[in-house]
Amino acid sequence: MAQELVHKVWDGDVAVVTLEAPPANALGPELRRALLEAITALPSPRAMVLESASLPFCGALPLEGEGSAPGLTELSTALADAPFPIVAAVGGVAMGPGCALLLAADQVLAGPGARMSLPEIALGLVAGGGVTQRLPRKIGARSALDMLLSGRVVPAEEAARMGLVDAVVSTDLLAAAIALASELGQKPLAARSEAGLFGEGYGVAVATAREGLFTDALPAAGMIIDAVEAAQLLPLPQGLMLETTLRDDLWRSDEVLALRAAADAARIARRMPRAIAGVPATSVGHLYLEGSALEIPLLAFAALRAGLHVTLA
Question: Which run of H or E residues covers position 309?
Fold first, then answer.
């Protein structure tokens, strides 16, 4: 199973690791184990590219939680501590755990259509996998808190302005990532930058976010702010321990149990009714799609690849 979820090939002395767990690369325990094996397997490459081909760059964790080992924090730590540079190439959606993997890479290249989001707040959770510690280290407290507290989708160009991605590539994303990884592999492994911690206004951003909390805000909002503040005050290992503790405490809370139940109910409601599901399939030649959800463009591209005509509103 693990070998089917992660595909590893070589381009010279660069290992290209492709996440292949359709339909959305949900970072469940099997995919986490497979990716950890790919990172730690010998012989070690000079450099590595992590990509997801036409699939999203890791969807959300299953609603039942991280489950068995390795956990997301262990996996992202293994990426960050790898003895070779890692370039992440994201061409589509990277949400939640996908962002944790991006932040653990040495360099991130994005395609023009790439989008990043941290939607854990919608389930009353603190983002895991080191996000609350590595994100402010990279882009500063203000931008990190904006992403973590809003859960909004950040397009590629804005992510580049933030510093979340290092460059937006409009041509062959994978070829650019391999070239960059090969270049980085010829140099000594650089120390991870923590420029975001030293920007002006870090403490002001934390204080402003705390003052802006509603009195009836979910507990997760205050804990996210605490975690981002801790990123400046604690060494990374201790910050990761705090993030894990906060997330575990929330996972057992009444608020999260209620939000998970609502998410489960919404997922069940989206299933096709039995009366329709039992109708024999008919030939479809034209698909009409309407809306702005992240899945709409993915459906459109899938339909076009299947040979259908598509109208997108």
Answer: strand 309-312
